[in-house]
Amino acid sequence: MALTPRFPAFLHGGDYNPDQWLKYPEVLEEDIRLMQAAKVNCVSVGIFAWAALEPVEGEYDFAWLDRVIDRLWAAGIRVDLATPSGARPAWIAQKYPEVLRVDEYFRRHHFGGRHNHCLTSPVYREKVRAIDTALAERYASHPAVILWHLSNEYSGDCRCPLCQEKFREYLRRRYGSLEALNEHWWTGFWSMKYTDWSQVESPSPIGQDANPAMWVDWRRFSTQQCKDFILMEKAAVHSVNPELPVTANLMQRFWDYDYFDLAEAIDVVSWDSYPLWGSGNDLVQASEHAMTHDLMRSLKGQNFLLMESTPSQVNWHAVNRMKKPGMHLLSSMLPLAHGADSVMYFQWRKGRGGSEMFHGAVVGHDGTADTRTFREVRSVGEALEKLAPLYATEKKQARVCILYDWQNLWALDYAQFARKGDMRYTETVNAHYRAFWQAGVSVDFRDCRACTDLSPYSLVIAPMLFMTHGGIEEKLNSFVRGGGTLVMTYCAGMIGEDGLAWQGRTPHGLTETLGIHALELDALFDGDANTLIRERDQWRLTRLCEVIEADTAQVLGRYGSDYYAGQPCLTVNACGAGKAYYLAAEPEEAFLHRFYGELIREMGIPKAIGSQLPDGVVAQERGGAVFLMNFAPSSGDVLLDHPCRDLLTDRTLSGKITMNPLEVLVLEKV
Ligand code: GLA
Ligand code: ZN
After folding, report:
1. Domain of 114?
2. Percentage with pLDDT > 90 across the chain
3. Beta strand spans in 17-150 (E)
4. 610-660 pLDDT, tens digit each
């Protein structure tokens, strides 16, 4: 399925800010020439252009945007047109202070920055709706415009009186009565009981700071506020042309909103990926971003767009390394391998001022095409042309699914227990993911929502599923009974959706399937370790060790030391037609590679390349082609399963091949 039906092709381009250059018409002219030279076919325009589009309240200036879009169209360059709601003009902040955000200390912010607005404010919503509608009326039928880029990286929350009222409304809907709220929030603790709805306000470090259930509800509410705002923007642009898809650019390791939920509001998922290349271990960087690519693909179960990446370096790290020669092509192929239908950048041209004036761009302050960055960008454009047959193709249905659940993430981060504030849910999920990714196995992600369907999978991994909700227990039980293989790990099924501890044996609702029950959750100090002893091998355990009892499960590994030495640490239980493993402690990563390697073999889970890959070389299948990528600083040999043609160089390869550092091949069977 083409994500941008008006222009069904891999998109190559990036954030373009002509609104910053209106006094330099020669630069704008030159941009078009340079874009063509860089093989750019699509740019995101107008992202922060509100002040240029509506310099005075109610007076729109579209003349400059008309010229830009027409010139781009004449040059064959498409437009991903943004709504400007990511930053507001000074006049709106001055005239309507209610649009300014109130932070967690209940301080109203002053004008400045971006994402500094209230998503509840009726004035803000009305102004955004009006300009979005005006943009749509003017451009939604322009043939150059292929996609709506709603706002920019929606994030954060506001605690103004309007938001407080909305929060209370949300809670009323969710819990029905104040009594139920008190019960679910367990307000008997520390005399927190509410006797009137007006007493309820958002959590804050200087107020209600210590109630994890309340914090999780605040995150759910913030997600709903943002989703509702997105739906408002979408309705505005769709009021003119409902056919033009909308996207919102999402972020990596994003914590504020539940992206599975938010993604329901948009047609196309896109995201901004900025790996820290050259910071030590590029393979680890790549694996984290590969995981997010798969997560983004999983949000809607369809391909996604890489909306931003840097062509060279960013400017917001403490140390901003340049990409080494060759890294740009390699790093641009990684998202493609995972289902991206674009390679887009932040930013097209470096501004002359502002905080991002030294952020990497396709065109630097020298204004020429004669730079390494520009040449490497062009080579990505060429690569995308060669890969045209792969456009809109999808990855084969994955057989492995990892649960990654935002509500669980919040619950683990807010809970005060074990390794307080250091539970590392995302890192843990990534460690499990990496074992599959490095083996060349495709992985999908799902969460606990009611619509989650596990039936396409044969192996489901649920790391650290502390909060069980949405009926996930029953789904996992029937998945196993029906022949699936389940892997769960420590601190599973301890609390429910409302944050209240499950009573009775845990993991809640899963003890029969797993054949174990949990007794104690021990946390280790940094530097301390235990051992997982299996029949033939031993592995280091750190951080979190759960003491469990095997009921019907077979014990595959035991603890090597401490007061629980000899007690089960790894178990498997036969249940119905399937089986369920339980890993009670946090193992060194090598164990996960071994353990999942054994499962992959045993279950016959397909890999992109049959033979063992050297360290640092990864393989991913997409559209029948295999992307082979070397993220190691050294070369490595790969034994190909069949003679293949590399789509990037048109070479035919067979047998044992050597992958140089940073080399990438896109192989099709011949
Ligand atoms: C984000 C934003 C961009 C820009 C880049 C810089 O992804 O969306 O506007 O600030 O970061 O890397
Ligand atoms: Zn607000």
Report:
1. 11-390
2. 99
3. 42-45, 78-82, 145-149
4. 999 999 999 999 999 999 999 999 999 999 999 999 999 999 999 999 999
User: Domain check: are 121 and 48 in the same one?
Assistant: yes
Q: Is the CB of 314 under 6 A from ligand 1?
A: yes
CA-310 nearest atom, ligand 1: 12
Do the Cβ atoms of 368 and 650 come closer than 8 Å?
A: no
Whether 451 is in a domain gets the answer: yes
Query: Which residues on adjacent β-strands are paired with residue 443?
Result: 400
Which residues belong to the active site?
153, 308
Per-residue pLDDT band for 439 (boundaries 50, 70, 90) equals very high
Residue 329 and residue 189 share a domain = yes
One domain, residues 366 and 468? no
Query: How many angstroms does the Cα of residue 103 sit away from the middle of ligand 2?
Result: 9
Length of the chain (residues): 670
Alpha-carbon distances, residue 466 vs 247, 294, 450, 495, 588 (angstroms): 32, 22, 17, 6, 21
Q: Which ligand is nearest to the CA of 100?
A: 2
Distance (angstroms) between ligand 2 centre and the Cα of 441 equals 44
User: Which residues does 432 contact at the CB level (< 8 Å), separation at least 6?
Assistant: 402, 461, 463, 487, 592, 596
Residue whose Cα lies nearest atom 5 of ligand 1: it is 346
Closest residue to atom 12 of ligand 1, CA basis = 314
Mean pLDDT score, 495-521: 98
This model's pTM is above 0.90: yes
**Domain tally for the chain?**
3
From the CA of 48, give the closest atom in ligand 1: 9
Task: Tell me what pLDDT residue 94 has.
Answer: 97
Which helix or strand (DSSP H or E) is residue 219 part of?
helix 212-238
For ligand 2, the distance from its centroid to the CA atom of residue 246, given in whole angstroms, is 25
Residue 402: which residues within 8 A CB-CB, separation 6 or more?
429, 432, 433, 443, 444, 445, 446, 460, 461, 462, 463
In the predicted model, what is the mean pLDDT of residues 57-63? 98
Q: Does the beta carbon of 276 lie inside 6 Å of ligand 1? A: no
Same domain as 160, residue 86: yes
Using 50, 70 and 90 to split pLDDT, how confident is the model at 538?
Answer: very high
DSSP-derived 3-state class of residue 549: strand
- Average pLDDT, stretch 496-517? 97
